[in-house]
């Protein structure tokens, strides 16, 4: 009964890159983590340890740093496209490359008078992400995203009318706290050539719509909120054809204060860690092109 | 341009369950974390917040605890199968269920003389895992696994003969430390009916073979070691038809001590955190049945 | 050789409390984690398990929630003082109480038109902290603080003129990136009675001065920066008598790009994880009152 | 109102060192993390950035690796003593050094037949620790320890007879699960000269007694268990004069299954994360010598 090699990939994960650009005394900081994963003619290396087809992961790390100097790091999607295409186009044994990048935001520290411009404080807001694939058939896919965008509505959220089976004890509620840490990824239609999309502006707008839909949706279920967030992005941003969201329900339980002679009119909550609800879903255009390997 | 709902699921993640079984004065502890994710007729809840098709995640948590009392928790795969089938078979709106369980190991604390049997110390070895799917078409898939099995070979590992491009600086080496944290998942052929497999014994044997192949493979690349580990399991265990492995290369860099007038004959290493190589691959039987949703 | 009980304390750690206050349609969120630790007549419970002197940790958790409803949660220092005094004053066996609180910041999500006011996004900036002690001798000590305030100067930092021994290989540098995650705690003089200090305003100002001194100090060493930050706070804020700072040196190493025919004019950096320098120091007024147990 | 420099120290934290020793084909692995913190004539560096008294943290890292090659790494306490004395004795500006080391345990992977001896699996049991101080007055203090020793008694634990105030709702219990993650540190009397103590054997025995006392104590409170553990060590090990323990009460709550028509005879538990009780205490000999800076 012969044994065969199935899907595989290898690469360098979590290369930490900080790039400083100087505009006179005013500096700009780009703080990212890059991961690459390659696949292709890898039968020999698995079966016999013959590395002739292997571009070392150490080289992939070096490439990240060298490209940062040669090409700069504008939008993370553009930098990921550069890298992914480079691996496939420069190495015949590499048939497919995936490059994933995370970006962390910094704010400028205000400085009185002269001399400012090179001091920063990490903003701590969500992390921006992207995942780019390039295949030797010429297809490039781009998925942008964010994670750890933690949001909370202190009212305008209900949960009732659900199935009640023999294991159900949850009472329906007409007013609850709804909190979640949004992980969102949105797919751009295949990139024909070059750098058509203004990814930075797109990011800001998608983020704004995600927050807006979360805030403005009177929620009967977290699924409804999730769908509204995806739908809002698709309606507002034509450069996006699909949105995938993962939203843990960060439960805030109303504390029972009656043993202490106190009422609790939706005021004092216990924020629980585990277990938590987890809602995952995709919202896409009816005519969205095939995703191929974009989500892998 | 209409917007549609794509793939989605919801459930309760990370329900912590500890079950104590008493055999006279000798107790047994089962320590697991359970996650469930359901999908089915979920169009309405996403579009309008109508929860009529939704079995609350709170109910899923309750079901875990009630089932632990009613049915016990023998092997985690068996418990996951019970739960997954229950959701699909009891709720017409639930068409598909995935149940994932992690198990943590405890050792008995030896006690001198009488009175022992109820004291335990967490072993801290790897975490055992499983992921079970059940679909309303009657198919059940079972994937067993482990994570955080950290292993190291202090010799018998080389890396040379790789591609050298303009960004390559890594020198070839004929003797290095090879260390990784193994994440392995192995797929069992579809379960026809009932509980055919002795999952506990299977786990112990698969683990033994993974360790054995890691230790006994003279390694020319981490890919070769990965493949050898998967192949060994398939050759030894007929109840497994595919093995998927993810193995970070936990780099141990030889420290250059020449500035201090010292040599370093593969003795003193710096264990780095990031970046790290990451090798992922699947090894399967030529005639393995279709995986369907087993890996999702 | 008799064995005796040394210093001890017990309490409830990490009670998660979220309080929502409604001002019509405009809501306010307070998100904190509370820990309490009590000590006193605890000889019996340690030696024989007699719990007659023990206020259960579960009761301490309840007290946090009940007090949040009864007294509200204005500044975390004030809430901590209330709790600490309550434990000591209500229980004769409790001679000393320490209450520690962390606060997480949320921003309001802007909503177009009517209906906003109850939607928030976690800001992710630093965490605000406090530690309050109350002793039955009537003394209350208050230490305010913050942690995870991550800052970076992309220039105006040198490091040279240090000791060079036989194990020194570091070259001096006249221009480096200086980055750290500031943990700061500042001590207020003993509180005579009541709530004299406007802790919220004090926090904002101390934070502003810490950032300002970090940004405006031309740094010859991280110690110099640390001292300047503490000194600036003491000079500006009379309600503070001592500042303690812990600042890891988050190394940003310039990547050597010469193998690739590239220079690197302080532009491309590798942000390392471990090891890291760690600088800790206290700056205080010459006439600062004795700290007693404030820092314990 | 002049500002002065208070207590301060600086050093290199978390230097990761793995040392491989070869005894023919049989290898031995030592896996540790080292931190050092120095203090002394540091007024100038804080006030003006004059680094003339500063041994760079980078040099401290180098020293760890060079010493590992020159002196080997036997017991972590001995290695820490070597380093701490080196810094104080070689640098006039360094008056005091603290060296902290953590050690991670590995087991040998059994290999059939010939060729084994260089393959290891991380055991995942607790982490061994030590903290050594050396002062220029000639005093060396040694504290050994462990952390993350997770233990559980499934019976023989009660909690009752405690204070009941207006915020108490906890019912007394005569049978509960008692679980904790032990952090223990034990102080050796000052080291006169050389390496008098067999720290490895001492560690194994202290660990054995901690586990034994945990398992064999019928517990009326976690404080009682803590004290019994410390007392047992002091009675059995004359090289130890004080034991400090920190033990979180990892609550296991009995799940109420009555809504499902099920009883729950101490069988099915929910293992909670937060909040948790936290019990800290010291047990020492009546005639223990002064600890001086040992615990700092």
List the helices and strands and how they pair.
4 copies of one chain form a homotetramer.
Chain A: E1 3-13, E2 15-23, E3 26-40, H1 43-47, H2 57-71, H3 76-90, E4 94-104, E5 106-108, E6 119-122, E7 127-135, E8 140-153, E9 178-188, H4 199-216, H5 222-236, E10 242-249, E11 252-254, E12 268-271, E13 276-285
Antiparallel strand pairs in A: 2-3, 3-4, 4-7, 5-6, 7-8, 8-9, 9-10, 10-13, 11-12
Helix pairs in contact in A: 4-5
EC number (chains A, B, C, D): 1.7.3.3
Keywords (chains A, B, C, D): Oxidoreductase, Purine metabolism
InterPro entries (chains A, B, C, D): Uricase
The share of residues in extended strands of chain A comes to 35-45%
N-to-C SSE string of chain A, H for helix and E for strand: EEEHHHEEEEEEHHEEEE
Biggest sheet, spatial arrangement of strands of chain A: 2-3-4-7-8-9-10-13
* Number of distinct beta strands of chain A: 13
Q: What is the helical fraction of chain A, as a range of percent?
A: 10-25%
Quaternary state of this entry equals: homotetramer
Structural class, from secondary structure content of chain A? Answer: alpha+beta
* Shape type of chain A: globular
Structural overview:
Chains A, B, C, D: Belongs to the uricase family. 4 copies of one chain form a homotetramer. The first copy, chain A, has 296 residues and is α+β, with helices and mostly antiparallel strands. Chain A folds into 2 domains: 9-138, Urate Oxidase, CATH 3.10.270.10; 149-186 and 196-296, Urate Oxidase. The first copy, chain A, is 23% helix and 38% strand. Chain A contains 5 helices and 13 strands. In chain A, the strands form 3 sheets. Chain A has an 8-stranded antiparallel β-sheet with strand order 2-3-4-7-8-9-10-13. The radius of gyration of chain A is 23 Å and the shape is globular. The model of chain A has no long low-confidence stretch (mean pLDDT 96). Strand 8 (140-153) of chain A pairs antiparallel with strand 6 (119-122) of chain C.
């Amino acid at each position: 009964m012969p044994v065969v090699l199935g899907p595989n990939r290898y690469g360098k994960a979590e290369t930490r890159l900080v790039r400083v650009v100087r505009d006179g005394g005013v500096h700009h900081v780009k703080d990212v983590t890059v991961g690459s994963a390659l696949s292709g003619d890898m039968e020999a290396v698995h079966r016999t340890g013959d590395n002739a087809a292997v571009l070392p992961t150490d080289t992939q790390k070096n490439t990240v740093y060298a490209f940062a100097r040669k090409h700069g790091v504008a939008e993370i999607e553009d930098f990921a496209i550069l890298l992914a295409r480079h691996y496939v186009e420069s190495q015949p044994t590499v048939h497919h490359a995936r490059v994933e990048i995370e970006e962390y935001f910094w704010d400028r520290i205000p400085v009185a008078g002269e001399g400012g411009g090179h001091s920063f404080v990490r903003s701590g807001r969500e992390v921006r992400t992207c995942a780019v694939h390039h295949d030797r058939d010429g297809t490039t896919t781009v998925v942008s995203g964010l994670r750890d965008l933690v949001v909370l509505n202190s009212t305008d959220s209900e949960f009732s009318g659900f199935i009640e089976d023999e294991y159900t004890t949850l009472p329906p509620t007409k007013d609850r706290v709804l909190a979640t840490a949004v992980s969102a990824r949105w797919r751009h239609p295949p990139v024909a050539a070059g750098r058509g999309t203004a990814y930075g502006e797109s990011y800001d707008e998608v983020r704004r719509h995600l927050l807006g839909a979360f805030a403005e949706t009177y929620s009967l279920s977290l699924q409804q909120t999730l769908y509204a967030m995806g739908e809002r992005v698709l309606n507002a941003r034509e450069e996006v054809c699909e949105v995938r969201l993962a939203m843990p329900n960060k439960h805030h339980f109303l504390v029972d204060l009656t043993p202490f002679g106190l009422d609790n009119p939706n005021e004092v909550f216990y924020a629980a860690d585990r277990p938590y609800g987890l809602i995952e879903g995709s919202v896409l255009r009816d005519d969205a092109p095939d995703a191929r390997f974009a989500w892998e």
